[in-house]
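YM 10:42: PDZ domain-containing protein sequence, as discussed on the call
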Amino acid sequence: MFELLYSLLSSLKSPVYWIVVAIVIFQYKKLGKMEKMILGSYREPLYKKAIVSTVLGLLGGIVGSIVFMILGTRVNSSDFIYILPLAILLSLIHPRFICFSYAGGIIALISLLFGYPKINIISVMTIVAVLHLIEAFLIIIDGHNGKIPIFMEKDNEIVGGFNMNRFWPVPFLVFLEGGSPLPVTVVAILGYGDFALAKYPKDKTKETAAMLFIFSALLLVLSELAKSYSKMLYVLAIASPVFHEMIIQMGRKRERLGEAIFTPSQRGLKLLDTMPYGVGEKMGLKTGDIILSINGNGVQSKEDILNALYFSPKYIWIDVLNEKGKLVTLDYKDYREGIQSLDVLFIPKESDYSFVVEEVKSPLSRLLKRIKIKGLFK
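YM 10:58: structure's back
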């Protein structure tokens, strides 16, 4: 175990590892722009996100390396010469297709049908399975921490929700076919992107992680069976992209058909999110809480909140209907500065937001849209 940890820590000396970390930081920086646009400030510093993701990525790499060692997985680096370019091409159709479960499955099926390219299908699918196992592990412990409150269109109305994005640089150890008896370190980027409209973020991440775990376990079982039954290679090649896509489409369907829970409340003001270390968080306000009154004054709009805090009171008490339907009273005092804001984001009863978050479009779809706008397609 010590040798494993030492080998992974040695990857910190590699320029490739720090390039991957830089890519993760760049992704967080892009997301930070949307975060600041919605909240007016950043939930947490960029460096903190980077450090947390790096540490957890290392932890995920340890878990994955142990699994590879137990399975005795050996890979041929030339296999990914075919898979990586296809993954990049598929991402032009949609960003999610960059996942190796699609390109790996397609290349494996082509290899089985036409005899070229020659790849080790079992080892490739094992890599795909274990990477998804690591991803499920990271999502369940860290996926909800990347939540950004958003407003989306659902059933022709604006509803609240959360956009969840996390990225992890994951170094792991694996043996090469016909190479050194010592494992080599490979660095991968794992990412999680999802929406939560019909579930709370933690519940959504648990659901997604469970589905990915099942997917990973299924691929591992099929890979083991394929060692003894060659016909199972076809099942394995087809299962990788098909089942991965099924997981995504099932999740989307549940969000699309499920009842949105972050909708305006007819009584009081419903809370979508609190700012870290803000007054609302310190008081104990949580997502889904409905503020009924402040210092005995009824609340029906943001103007009522502003009026209640207009003179920066030193002490406030708030009557809240929590997500379980229980009426509770929370209080907060600041005798030094007074209380000027609750540092929270409400779900408006009438939309006063000029933006909604849409699904990420692929480079190809954006290009076709530009061509259409220019009038080349009538």
